[in-house]
Amino acid sequence: MAFSLDIPPYIFEQYNKGIEIDIIAAALTHKGHTLRPLYFPLGRIPIAFQNNLVDAAMGDMGIDLTPHGGFYADPTVIYDNVFISLKKNNLTINGPADLDNLTIISFQGAEKRYPQWLKKPFEEKRFYGISDQLTQVKLLNLERYDLVLSDRYIFKYFVKQLKYEDNIQVNQVDEHHFAEIDPLDYRPVFRSQQIRDDFNFGLKKLKESGEFQAIYDHYIK
To answer: Domain Solute-binding protein family 3/N-terminal spans what residues (predicted)?
Structure first.
């Protein structure tokens, strides 16, 4: 299954662990399947699926994989993406026009996920997509970019990492909620309809048993 490179606390590539990997692995185990993660930059995940390099993908990164033999499963992990700015800049983000003249750094494929917000910055070369989300936090802190678009938990994880491992104090930030979360944006894709169904069954059992929440709590708390 194609996963992104490191996205702590959801994906720890070095250990084949993390919230998302643990949940998907546990759900597949219910029907006897074994997860083998393969790691790609975010933007290459759908390409890996299209080119038959993997049997499944953690998501489609905004590209419909149905024409390429994809069967969409139920949502697994929901990323709570927000714009993040340095508090001292006192930015207000209420609509796409508020991004005019601002530079934005985010995960690869964000411009496909949020075209209403990011099409113009992308076309004007004010948007930069990068897989390394630790670098996103560093560049915001250094004021190289005005905004980071990131999941709240991911950003906070790397703020802590900078503080405790590199002794770097990140400036205070503001979070700007800009879009309603659509769970359909976060569906794993399988090449086999049967395995998709088996996964959905296992995911339902995880939620009923409390194991789903226990995995989250293990990493977040």
So the answer is: 2-220
pLDDT: which is higher, 144 or 170: 144
User: 189-190 and 71-72 as β-strands: parallel, antiparallel, unpaired?
Assistant: antiparallel
Q: What is the pLDDT of residues 32-79, one digit of tens each?
A: 999 999 999 988 999 999 999 999 999 998 899 999 999 999 999 988
Instruction: Check: CB of residue 142 under 8 Å from CB of residue 186.
Output: no
Q: Residues 96-123: pLDDT tens digits?
A: 999 999 999 998 889 988 999 999 999 9
Rounded CA-CA distance 124/120 in Å is 6
SS (H, E, C) 177-205: CCCCCCHHHHCCEECCHHHHHHHHHHHHH
CATH of domain 2-77+183-220: 3.40.190.10
Q: State CA 36 to chain mean position distance.
A: 19
Pick the CATH number of 81-176 from 3.40.190.10, 3.40.50.880, 3.40.50.20, 3.90.105.20: 3.40.190.10
